[in-house]
Amino acid sequence: MFAKLEGLERNYMDLEKDLADPDIFNDQEKYRKLTKAFADLKPVVETFRRYRSLQQQLEENKELLSDSDADIREMAHGEIRQIEEKLPELEHELKVLLLPVDPLDEKNILLEIRAGTGGEEAALFAADLFRMYCRYAELMHWKVEIMSESPSDSGGYKEIIALISGEKVYSRLKFESGTHRVQRVPATESQGRIHTSAATVAVMPEAEEVDIDIRPEDLRFDVYRSSGPGGQSVNTTDSAVRVTHIPTGLVVTCQDEKSQHKNKAKALKVLYSRLLQAEQERRNSEQADARRSMVGTGDRSERIRTYNFPQGRVTDHRVNLTLYSLNRVMEGEIQELVDALVTFAQTEALKAQAE
Asked: Of 276, 271, 253, whose CA–CA distance to 159 is shortest?
């Protein structure tokens, strides 16, 4: 591990030297690549330097244990204790920093939420979940753009798809995929009985055309008139678009925009991301180690979290974490859940690496 860290430090110093060259600004593409590589290495190199500095301090204090002055020996004992407490923490931090990086972590995401069992109450819960993620995105200074929505009669969502863009969105939200269950008394329930409903969440990395190789002849486009609520031009022009990926049978429709061109672009973005997600799932199923290091499978049929309104608690079943702060969670304060899932994934990855 330390030989690898020394190698990374040498790379870091080479990048530092390259970035100090004034001529580098003439090639903006190269400058961006070097800046990113430098920023990626910075946390691990700085942590390694802290670790090495502490080790040096430890050796120096051990030498002081044979000093003739009793006060100096006592001071050395105290510092040795403190350093020996810090070193294992830093070593663990270094191991985590050296874990292979998910190449998709930097990507934006397509968030897809669908009402599951529970009828209108499930649709209302889907809307609550969407609002929760929007609030969290706001806290993280991310941007949310609705790609497609299918409202329910009571103001919820049968389905909603949104693009969330910002810094490392996928790395933070990739463990949200699965079935989210709610237990509460619906507004329409006159007897005050608690109902259980569910909504499914899929978090897909935003795919660029370069990520997925699709031949033009594999796509079929159909245009038709939009239906449902909308502006005055809805229902008067063929602006809605349905795109079918013939080899897989995947179908995406988009009718939210008045422009056929915009609907086509949005539908293609969703299709590319679904195909990328399907490819990721295929790879994960082939790699037992990769699957073991994930927090759950990301399968929508897997129940991952329960939101219990009468008790004001939310429980994530994968990490056995229960928070009695449901109101704050529904307002987007999900960082504690996100951090617990990321830490668990790192721990599982370290275990797999050790095996």
From this structure: 253
